[in-house]
Protein backbone atom coordinates (compact mmCIF):
# COMPACT_ATOMS: atom_id res chain seq x y z
CA UNK A 1 0.00 0.00 0.00
CA UNK A 2 1.40 3.34 -0.99
CA UNK A 3 0.72 6.75 0.48
CA UNK A 4 1.97 8.54 -2.61
CA UNK A 5 -1.63 9.04 -3.73
CA UNK A 6 -2.55 11.13 -0.68
CA UNK A 7 0.56 13.30 -0.66
CA UNK A 8 0.44 16.80 -2.14
CA UNK A 9 2.06 17.14 -5.58
CA UNK A 10 5.17 18.90 -4.27
CA UNK A 11 5.70 16.13 -1.69
CA UNK A 12 5.22 13.49 -4.38
CA UNK A 13 7.85 15.19 -6.51
CA UNK A 14 10.29 15.41 -3.58
CA UNK A 15 9.68 11.74 -2.75
CA UNK A 16 10.20 10.61 -6.34
CA UNK A 17 13.35 12.71 -6.72
CA UNK A 18 14.78 11.31 -3.50
CA UNK A 19 13.96 7.73 -4.47
CA UNK A 20 15.44 8.12 -7.98
CA UNK A 21 18.63 9.54 -6.47
CA UNK A 22 18.86 6.54 -4.14
CA UNK A 23 18.35 4.12 -7.04
CA UNK A 24 21.04 5.62 -9.33
CA UNK A 25 23.99 3.74 -7.74
CA UNK A 26 22.04 0.47 -7.86
CA UNK A 27 21.08 0.97 -11.50
CA UNK A 28 24.66 1.89 -12.40
CA UNK A 29 25.98 -1.22 -10.64
CA UNK A 30 23.52 -3.46 -12.46
CA UNK A 31 24.43 -1.92 -15.83
CA UNK A 32 28.15 -2.25 -15.06
CA UNK A 33 27.80 -5.90 -14.03
CA UNK A 34 25.77 -6.75 -17.13
CA UNK A 35 28.41 -5.13 -19.37
CA UNK A 36 31.20 -6.86 -17.48
CA UNK A 37 29.53 -10.26 -17.85
CA UNK A 38 28.86 -9.81 -21.56
CA UNK A 39 32.46 -8.66 -22.17
CA UNK A 40 33.81 -11.60 -20.17
CA UNK A 41 31.65 -14.04 -22.13
CA UNK A 42 32.85 -12.58 -25.44
CA UNK A 43 36.48 -12.75 -24.34
CA UNK A 44 36.05 -16.34 -23.17
CA UNK A 45 34.56 -17.23 -26.55
CA UNK A 46 37.55 -15.59 -28.24
CA UNK A 47 35.57 -12.79 -29.91
CA UNK A 48 37.92 -10.02 -31.10
CA UNK A 49 35.17 -7.42 -31.35
CA UNK A 50 34.46 -6.47 -27.72
CA UNK A 51 33.17 -2.89 -27.39
CA UNK A 52 35.02 -0.62 -25.00
CA UNK A 53 37.93 -3.00 -24.48
CA UNK A 54 40.99 -1.39 -26.06
CA UNK A 55 43.58 -3.90 -24.93
CA UNK A 56 42.16 -7.40 -24.45
CA UNK A 57 45.53 -8.60 -23.28
CA UNK A 58 44.64 -7.04 -19.90
CA UNK A 59 41.99 -9.72 -19.60
CA UNK A 60 44.24 -12.51 -20.81
CA UNK A 61 47.23 -13.21 -18.62
CA UNK A 62 49.59 -16.10 -18.14
CA UNK A 63 47.58 -17.50 -15.27
CA UNK A 64 45.23 -20.27 -16.27
CA UNK A 65 42.59 -22.02 -14.19
CA UNK A 66 44.68 -25.20 -14.25
CA UNK A 67 47.54 -23.28 -12.56
CA UNK A 68 45.68 -23.19 -9.23
CA UNK A 69 47.22 -24.81 -6.16
CA UNK A 70 44.68 -27.61 -6.24
CA UNK A 71 45.86 -28.60 -9.73
CA UNK A 72 49.65 -28.42 -9.20
CA UNK A 73 50.04 -32.16 -8.58
CA UNK A 74 48.21 -33.05 -11.76
CA UNK A 75 49.80 -30.33 -13.90
CA UNK A 76 52.25 -32.71 -15.49
CA UNK A 77 49.81 -35.57 -15.96
CA UNK A 78 48.43 -36.71 -19.28
CA UNK A 79 45.01 -35.38 -18.34
CA UNK A 80 46.14 -31.76 -18.65
CA UNK A 81 44.17 -30.98 -21.79
CA UNK A 82 40.98 -32.49 -20.37
CA UNK A 83 41.33 -30.48 -17.17
CA UNK A 84 41.96 -27.29 -19.11
CA UNK A 85 38.65 -27.70 -20.95
CA UNK A 86 36.80 -28.39 -17.69
CA UNK A 87 38.47 -25.42 -15.98
CA UNK A 88 37.47 -23.10 -18.79
CA UNK A 89 33.86 -24.18 -18.46
CA UNK A 90 34.08 -23.88 -14.68
CA UNK A 91 35.62 -20.44 -14.99
CA UNK A 92 32.83 -19.28 -17.30
CA UNK A 93 30.20 -20.62 -14.92
CA UNK A 94 31.93 -18.89 -12.01
CA UNK A 95 31.96 -15.56 -13.86
CA UNK A 96 28.23 -15.90 -14.51
CA UNK A 97 27.57 -16.88 -10.89
CA UNK A 98 29.57 -13.91 -9.58
CA UNK A 99 27.72 -11.55 -11.90
CA UNK A 100 24.38 -12.99 -10.83
CA UNK A 101 25.38 -12.62 -7.17
CA UNK A 102 26.38 -8.99 -7.72
CA UNK A 103 23.04 -8.32 -9.37
CA UNK A 104 21.19 -10.00 -6.52
CA UNK A 105 23.12 -7.96 -3.96
CA UNK A 106 22.12 -4.78 -5.78
CA UNK A 107 18.49 -5.92 -5.82
CA UNK A 108 18.65 -6.77 -2.12
CA UNK A 109 19.95 -3.29 -1.33
CA UNK A 110 17.18 -1.71 -3.40
CA UNK A 111 14.57 -3.90 -1.72
CA UNK A 112 15.85 -2.96 1.72
CA UNK A 113 15.64 0.71 0.76
CA UNK A 114 12.10 0.19 -0.51
CA UNK A 115 11.06 -1.52 2.73
CA UNK A 116 12.45 1.41 4.69
CA UNK A 117 10.40 3.79 2.54
CA UNK A 118 7.25 1.71 3.04
CA UNK A 119 7.79 1.79 6.79
CA UNK A 120 8.16 5.57 6.68
CA UNK A 121 4.95 5.78 4.65
CA UNK A 122 3.14 3.67 7.26
CA UNK A 123 4.43 5.88 10.06
CA UNK A 124 3.26 8.99 8.18
CA UNK A 125 -0.16 7.42 7.62
CA UNK A 126 -0.51 6.58 11.32
CA UNK A 127 0.61 10.09 12.29
CA UNK A 128 -1.87 11.64 9.84
CA UNK A 129 -4.73 9.54 11.23
CA UNK A 130 -3.75 10.49 14.78
CA UNK A 131 -3.67 14.19 13.88
CA UNK A 132 -7.08 13.98 12.16
CA UNK A 133 -8.56 12.34 15.26
CA UNK A 134 -6.98 14.95 17.53
CA UNK A 135 -8.37 17.73 15.32
CA UNK A 136 -11.87 16.23 15.57
CA UNK A 137 -11.51 15.95 19.35
CA UNK A 138 -10.39 19.58 19.58
CA UNK A 139 -13.32 20.72 17.44
CA UNK A 140 -15.72 18.73 19.62
CA UNK A 141 -14.22 20.21 22.79
CA UNK A 142 -14.53 23.71 21.34
CA UNK A 143 -18.22 23.11 20.54
CA UNK A 144 -18.83 21.88 24.07
CA UNK A 145 -17.07 24.91 25.50
CA UNK A 146 -19.24 27.26 23.43
CA UNK A 147 -22.57 25.44 23.99
CA UNK A 148 -22.92 26.09 27.77
CA UNK A 149 -22.23 29.80 27.27
CA UNK A 150 -24.83 30.06 24.51
CA UNK A 151 -27.40 28.12 26.53
CA UNK A 152 -26.77 30.29 29.59
CA UNK A 153 -27.25 33.46 27.55
CA UNK A 154 -30.47 32.08 26.04
CA UNK A 155 -31.80 31.16 29.49
CA UNK A 156 -31.06 34.61 30.89
CA UNK A 157 -32.73 36.22 27.89
CA UNK A 158 -35.84 34.01 28.23
CA UNK A 159 -36.18 34.61 31.93
CA UNK A 160 -35.30 38.30 31.89
CA UNK A 161 -36.44 39.75 28.56
CA UNK A 162 -35.67 43.29 29.63
CA UNK A 163 -31.93 42.49 29.86
CA UNK A 164 -30.14 42.60 26.54
CA UNK A 165 -26.84 40.79 26.54
The ordered string of helix (H) and strand (E) elements is HH
Structure class: mainly alpha
What is the general shape?
Answer: rod-shaped
Q: CA-to-CA gap between the ends?
A: 56 Å
Query: Over the alpha carbons, how many angstroms does the gyration radius reach?
Result: 36 Å
Rounded mean pLDDT is 76
Q: What is the number of E strands?
A: 0
Main sheet overview = none
Number of helices: 2
List unreliable stretches of 5+ residues.
Answer: none
As a percent range, the share of strand residues is under 5%
What level of helicity do the residues show? Answer: over 70%
Short summary of the structure?
By secondary structure, the protein is mainly alpha-helical. The protein has helices at residues 9-45, 80-159.
